[in-house]
């Protein structure tokens, strides 16, 4: 067979397109002619090779002989073994039509995605004042991170295009089925993950108030409103989804899916969302938090921007940013107003940075204080309640991460996004090519130095106030570095990037802690 293949030459060979265009003689063998190989050109000589039927018939005869040999060797072997070839008269069974038998191109997400821009870190003076791309906000930082070949999820690098062929962002995870209230122990595990991975940054309720609703949902669900039921199911859905890497909660994934709890919650949302109230803002905040972690393939179409803008607009309409008319409200109600406003602020400001938009509200217009821990955010209030013994008995092991960091990630995030706001309104100003900067260069450099100092100070606080093995520690450090990357992005508005700073960000992001962010998704990984 080897001799046959060595002597198997084309019956007809037409010149490649490059030689034909230059009107020169095309000499050589496929896949590239001599001239194209010499000049490093792309040669299409293989497309112009022709064989007669008599030549192909020789190959077909050899193939049939080999198939006959394989068939004879297959007889008597284990029937479960996969054959290497099938003779023409062999019937293809259903077992042979498995998905593994279909050839798939080894495509990856990197091959499916489009680059937003290219980061230039050279000190070439020719870059000064030149427009280098349309990437705005943290989309530029995303392009910077992409060049380091980081993956958001552990298993994305093993996926191909066929894995996303049936993806529908309307149904998020591709399911329309609903799930009833899970067993109490499963619901409590989901709540545990929610409190440890979401609540410290986005506190959309007071702990005591929600736990009372959570308990009532299991004891007397008919007494709850649609809003209360929505809150319980959304928290379970988010917690269940955030805890997917935990071995304990993963045991229940065959029976329960996060999307099914979300679908159940959404049915209650449809009955209550028409009212513009604090309840509806609370509902939309949970919806936004759900989508931030599940719509990972549809996050660049502006939906998050519009939803975030609506959240902060509704919060302003409800006057949650003001301190008036608070005299007759309880401590819990006042604290809830603070938390709902600042959660809306964080979600909206994050989208503002991502899409390079203008600010909706500035810090000097905000009168309400920052979120804070109150008595009803601890387990102390359970000490006198006998029917809460299940929580009381496990309070030392329940909410491990939350009991250590409380609302510190939220407070640090507010400071970080305040710095982002200054950056967007001074140094980083999106504008068209050729237009004149609003600020002179000295003023821009002054703001740039001040912002650098603020980010450095915040990084010191992150180091000292959060456990280094905590998820929020790494998230906030990376968000701070993203601010520095945006600050040093070369553009017509401010100087060339600081090469040393960008290299330091590169070094940090390549260190092992970056991998912790996506593996430490369960409280048993949080070591304090």
Automatic annotation (TrEMBL):
Residues 15-45 form the Zn(2)-C6 fungal-type domain. Its main location: nucleus. PROSITE patterns: ZN2_CY6_FUNGAL_1, ZN2_CY6_FUNGAL_2. The keyword Lipid metabolism does not apply. This is Transcriptional activator protein acu-15. It comes from the Eukaryota. It is found in: Nucleus. InterPro entries: XnlR_reg_dom (IPR007219), Yeast_MetPath_Reg (IPR052202), Zn2-C6_fun-type_DNA-bd_sf (IPR036864), Zn2Cys6_DnaBD (IPR001138).
